[in-house]
Amino acid sequence: MWWNRFGPMFAADIRRQRVSRMKGSRHWRWHLDEVFVKINGERHYLWRAVDHEGEVLESFVTKRRDKAAALEFMKKALKRHGRAETIVTDGMRSYPAAMRELGNLERREMGRWFNNRAENSHLPFRRRERAMQRFRRMKSLQKFASIHASFHNHFNSERHLVDRQTYKTRRSAALAEWQKVVG
């Protein structure tokens, strides 16, 4: 698969640059959410952390959707990306239980439409999942989800927010960086 060859070196480099830029930000907000994914007819859960700009920070696959899984996911995200000012979650009870254990429950925000950023970040993943005709193993789902997020973050330049010339400049810069890493 393409992510076995190009993904790890590219994703690690891009993620490292992004984290170093965002750690200094005062208003870094995370949105946490989970999505159901079927692997061979069995239900699994893909946990995702998205920042306030819509870029996927972390992806994590589990068989269960409980406090232990939420705690493991949050520890992994906090270790890799540092501390966020606020963490937006949905109403699932696993999040406050895990956050209480980590000692950052006071940073939690929850509301009816607060977590739309995370919900919308699932859409590119779902489109690609349908094109791939689902997943066969949990390991391949984990690898694909983490690499897909890095690629999507790098090449998604939000066309609707900028004029054509700026978009073309950013897109060609992203492609040049990609070619430099791969070539």
TrEMBL record:
Residues 28-156 form the DDE domain. Keywords: DNA recombination, DNA-binding, Transposition. GO terms for molecular function: DNA binding. Pfam families: DDE_Tnp_IS240. GO terms for biological process: DNA recombination; transposition. Involved in the transposition of the insertion sequence. PANTHER family: BLL1675 PROTEIN. This is IS6 family transposase. It comes from Croceicoccus pelagius.
